[in-house]
Amino acid sequence: xxxxxxxxxxxxxxxxxxxxxxxxxxxxxxxxxxxxxxxxxxxx
Length: 44
What we know:
mainly alpha, 3 helices, Homeodomain-like_sf, Anaerobic nitric oxide reductase transcription regulator
């Protein structure tokens, strides 16, 4: 599950050129929750 979430976020980050707010919007999650998840997954 972690690998899937990690690849999904990384793909979105590439698509949105690193803009976290746009990634959160695209994934329909709150930006704070996305940041927390990214830290847990070692992306941020």
